[in-house]
Amino acid sequence: MTHAAHPQQFHPHTHSGQIRVASAINFLAGIYLLIAGLMGGPTAGSTWNSVIFGIIVAVLAATRFTGATGPWASWIDALIGLWLIISPWVYGFSGTQWEWNSIVIGIIMLVLGVWSALAGNQTEAMPTP
Fold it and tell me: Which of 11, 27, 84, 86 has the most neighbouring CB atoms within 10 Å?
């Protein structure tokens, strides 16, 4: 009688690639946000918003990419993405090209942050062989 091995024994880290891809793209989005902020925004609030959150996202995404942090880092990236989506109305730069810059980058960070965080939860919940 043969015994079939459980598929998880052969692929214990099937979601690590998903985490790395999402974190790498989120890192690039954070660097873009930082550079865009340094180029100057329509208001001082939008400029500092981009610079500060660009740095935070880049650091969190880099640490998540290397495995130094858990899913919580991706959840924070997702929350920052949500903040970026609403920030044009908070800082009063809606109706400008910066509004769309903030919204698009925010959506990217939100989606990738959730995608990475959920993959991390699945990977950590998987039993080891």
Answer: 84
pTM above 0.85, yes or no: no
Q: What is the pLDDT of residues 74-122, one digit of tens each?
A: 999 999 999 999 999 998 888 888 889 899 999 999 999 999 999 865 5
Dist. CA 125–CA 23, nearest whole Å: 20
Question: Does the CA dihedral 70-71-74-76 come out positive or negative?
Answer: negative
Angle formed at CA 37 by CA 36 and CA 43, multiple of 5 degrees:
125
Domain map of the chain by residue range? 16-123
The 3-state secondary structure of the chain reads CCCCCCHHHCCCCCCHHHHHHHHHHHHHHHHHHHHHHHCCCCCHHHHHHHHHHHHHHHHHHHHHHHCCCCHHHHHHHHHHHHHHHHHHHHHCCCCCHHHHHHHHHHHHHHHHHHHHHHHHHHHHHCCCC
